[in-house]
From TrEMBL:
It comes from the Bacteria. This is MmcQ/YjbR family DNA-binding protein. InterPro entries: YjbR-like_sf. SUPFAM superfamilies: YjbR-like.
Length: 137
């Protein structure tokens, strides 16, 4: 979305540090904000909500902003549509295994790291997940 603001640098720095610790990940610009991928699969997408834009996320989040949020993938979200529906979470309209969290001053960054790693595990090939598990032992 041309001209749409990026999330604050301090939030991006924290997310980058978490994502870079995971095997074979990379960052790229998304249609709004930034996303982190493993191979061709997005496992995290961070964006700002401002002035009711992007509308699809502002509507799902129930706010016109200003706010910063991150989407992630979760098998729990896919199995239980009522999970991740209370603040600081919200559910984007698609896909079924996606949820989002507001990244505000109250967010627990250890929780965010866990969500990112869990999302990576959902999206990454088994070989890379095995490499991550071996590195964690």
């Amino acid at each position: 979305m041309p001209g749409h603001p990026l999330p604050p640098p301090e939030i991006l720095a924290r997310l980058r540090a978490i994502a870079r610790a995971l095997p074979e990940t990379y960052e790229e610009s998304a249609w709004v904000g930034l996303r982190w991928r493993v191979r061709t699969h997005t496992f995290a997408h961070v964006f700002a909500i401002a002035g009711g834009k992007p509308q699809v996320y502002a509507t799902a989040a129930g706010t016109d902003g200003p706010a910063v949020a991150m989407t992630f993938r979760s098998r729990i979200a896919e199995l239980d549509r009522t999970h991740f529906t209370e603040p600081p979470f919200f559910r984007p309209l698609w896909p079924a295994d996606m949820a989002a969290i507001f990244l505000d001053e109250t967010v627990d960054w250890d929780d965010v790291a866990g969500l990112l790693e869990g999302s990576y595990r959902v999206q990454a090939p088994r070989k890379l997940v095995a490499r991550l598990e071996a590195a964690r032992r």
